[in-house]
Amino acid sequence: MEKLTDAFLLISKPYGITSRKFLNEIRNLVNEKRIGHSGTLDPMATGLLFVALGNFTRLLPYVSFDTKEYFIEIVFGIETDTWDITGKVIKEQKVSLSENDILKILPKFVGEINQKIPFFSAKKWNGIEFYKLARKGTFIEAFKKVKIYGIEYCGFHNNRLLLRVNCESGAYMRSLAYELGLALEVSATLSAITRTKIGPFSIKDATTLGHLKRGDFSRGIVSPQSALGIPVLTLQNGENFLKGNAHILDKVIVIDERYGVIGIGIVKDNKVQPKRVFPWKS
Questions:
Q1: How far apart are CA 257 and CA 109, in angstroms?
Q2: 150 CB-side CA count, 13 A
Q3: Which residue is catalytic, options 42, 81, 101, 205?
Q4: Residue 68 CA: distances (Å) to CA of 37, 151, 157, 208
Q5: Is residue 154 part of a domain?
Q6: Which of 45, 85, 198, 229 could lock 41 by a disulfide, CB 3.0 to 4.6 Å apart?
Q7: Mean pLDDT of the region 179-197
Q8: Cα(86)–Cα(94) distance, rounded to whole angstroms?
Q9: What is the phi/psi pair of residue 267, to 5°?
């Protein structure tokens, strides 16, 4: 199979596999040893994963996505130790909730909220992950402020609630399920989760393992400029730059995200000031 390297890749992760094992499968398919990702998904989570291949793994520290979107399902009447359906059931109860009960409580979870961190999470306490401590019977109660930008009610049936959640990176959907149950005074756990957006990227643009197995690289490739969100500089001779020498800029050609030239800029005091601009084309 053709080697795929030096690329950013949007790919959909299936259910029941860790992000690390999923990367190993991708590595074997594209024949590239150097691989990394941004934004881990739990084994039960499906959906969008942002992957770097080859030299682009060195660019991951410069990739930052402020927002994420998830479709989640919450089941009421069950509580587990992990706050998701893969954990050990520690409480079961009969519940009687109405759609109106749900709609009344949801607005309280939009905005900046103080979210409890799951006991079974990768968050560290004195250098040790919470989940390792929890497995030994030590449960750390800790909270973090997160921003939930929006929650869309998508349906409620048989004590199962479907929501679309737009939030900042780092928000816990398991905590949202658990704390929603607390607010409704019933047990609750996260029963399904799919990540559908990372920053500006959508699941509809992602590739799959099936496409990669067929050698089809027509989907999921992301340009570095769209992933990094910083200007692109083209050098006619990059040899001196690769040797560690500075490149002095005084004038630049300015292009937009569609690669259209929109003007000439003068570089002054770390700013690009317009010198000559072209008429804007909508």
A1: 35
A2: 9
A3: 42
A4: 15, 12, 26, 20
A5: yes
A6: 45
A7: 97
A8: 20
A9: -90, 120
Distance between terminal CA atoms of the chain?
Answer: 41
The single residue listed with the structure tokens 């990059």 is 238
β-strands 89-92, 160-168 pairing: unpaired
Q: Which two tokens stand for residue 66?
A: 């402020």
Percentage with pLDDT > 90 across the chain: 62
Phi, psi of 173, deg, nearest 5: -75, -30
75 and 58 in a common domain:
no
Largest CA distance in the chain: 71
Query: 244 in a domain, yes or no?
Result: yes
pLDDT for 279? 75
239 vs 212, which has greater pLDDT?
A: 212
180: CATH = 3.30.2350.10
The count of domains in the chain is 3
Tell whether 256 is covered by a domain.
Answer: yes
Based on the residue annotation, tell me whether 250 is a catalytic residue of this protein. Answer: no
Cα 224 to Cα 230: distance, rounded to the nearest angstrom: 9
**Does one domain contain both 181 and 76?**
yes
Residue 176's identity, in one-letter code, is L
Closest CA to 249 of 263, 237, 266, 232: 266
Domain span including residue 248: 239-277
Q: Tokens 């520290």 map to which residue?
A: 61
What is the spatial distance between Cα 228 and Cα 64, in angstroms, rounded to a whole number? Answer: 7
Verify that 53 and 153 share a domain, yes or no.
Answer: no
Same domain, residue pair 141 and 244: no
pLDDT digits 0-9 by tens, 94-106: 999 999 999 999 9
The answer to whether 79 and 90 are in contact (CB under 8 A) is yes
